[in-house]
Predict the structure.
Amino acid sequence: MSHSQVFQNMARKKKRRTGKATAGGSGDRRVRTRPSRLSAVVLFAILLLAYLGNGDTLVGNDATANVHLPLQLLTRGRLTFTQEDSPYMFMYTLQLPTRKIPVRFRSWDAVVEGKTMLEHWKSGALSLDSPFYYLAPTRKPGVYANTFGLGAGLLALPALAVVKPFAAPLEANPAQLWQVGKVVAAAAVAGSAVFVFLTALGPLGSLAAFLLALAYGLCTCVWSTSSQALWQHGPTELFLAMGTYFLLRPQRPSPLWAGLAYSMSVACRPTSLLVLLVVAIFLGVRDRRALLRFCLGALPVGALLLIYGLVLFGHPLAAGQLGVGPEVALAKTGNPGLWQTPLHIGLLGLLVSPGRGLLVYSPIAIFALWGAVRVWRDPAWRDWRPISVAVAALLLPAAKWFDWWGGWCYGYRPIVDAITLLAFLAIPVVPWIRARRSRWLLCAGLGCWSLGVQVLGAFCYDVSGWNGRPAYDVVGPGPDRRVTYDDLRLAEQQVREHGGRIEPRDQNVDVPLHRHRLWSVTDNPMSYYLTRAGSARTRRLETIAKFLRDEG
């Protein structure tokens, strides 16, 4: 018996118990549909308000080109960037009479030493060093594409087109531009929760489905990370959820629309290709006609992506992240290899390390992991099985990637897209949780922990605070004396009482010397931001303002 037949039997039994008419009448469907639609709207509104409630946007270079791509398309009609139109995306060296200095500027009209940057360029005093890593070189010299693809930026295009005529010039007002990007990302994540809710309605009913979708939206890093800026993640999660909904909905599954949605997730983040391939293989084994419809749905976007890669990079399967990856890997690890992390280290790190672990930041996800196992033990859920394999397909490459920890981030950002698929895998477990009070209480407790961690990240995470946490070495008196403090005040007290000097340094987790901090039980991001919530919030706002002024 398939899961759709199970759901239909459950519905018939419920109707017999309540004395309601049998299914099939159009009036009955309308009565059921109206509350469901209202619940979906309420869910979307709650999550959108939560995501926008901190009043700021999380900044970072990984989102810069995504944010500027739709503006580039609206103002210049191009999907590429050059130093002439986007000088802030490049680093330069300026030769002054007495010294050389690195410079970065937003406009060629910026003035340094009494001359505009354009005048320095024409005189030969200004030279180009390199673009930032979020730009990938194309086949045409001096022309660069977004390292992080097309999907996220193009999703924001309609919103920016609406806002642009009523806003100040957005190129000169990056704060407004980034805020539009955040609203789009927040709406995308909230939309992904709606698709989780709609899929869960059949087997669980309205209330349980609503609570499950709410837990996904508020108790995972889709709140603290995906919804806070126009990364690849939010749009990817929207299309992954959409595709899974069309694949799994019990009454009218639609492989055609599932294929289209999954292909759009690939346009946002190339790793989603693994999800598309896994689903295609399962459909090929079980239903060739469904596979054909699935492939037809994926064909339009897939063809456009192949043409994009061929035209810009000379290869239809080219991806910007793979192109710039070796350079970043060399800078972080001393090795240009992209898949150099031992698998067991990456897996343990992404699942249980205090610095990045899924089960530390969102321990409620343990039930979804159990759901990934349960769909293989219960034949009624066999249609869910490709989703469990897709989760593994996303997790394993992330664990092998050279910086499995995802650089400077909060939580399990490298695998945050997988949490969307895990939300669907939690559906088969909900009846099991509700069967015993002890399980429900455990779920509620883990949910409260997960919610608190996400609130902390959404309001207090300040990018560099824990990731580049400073340390203060008190050296001397005496040639061999060195004492290290995390608190500057304690270091200053040590110097006042015993002499010596303070040598500050950071503990950047991207540097191999300090990477052990990712595994520290006492030095972890959650305790750091919990004990410094006020000061971290202040630094977060200062970091955002500085980034938008100088880099955004």
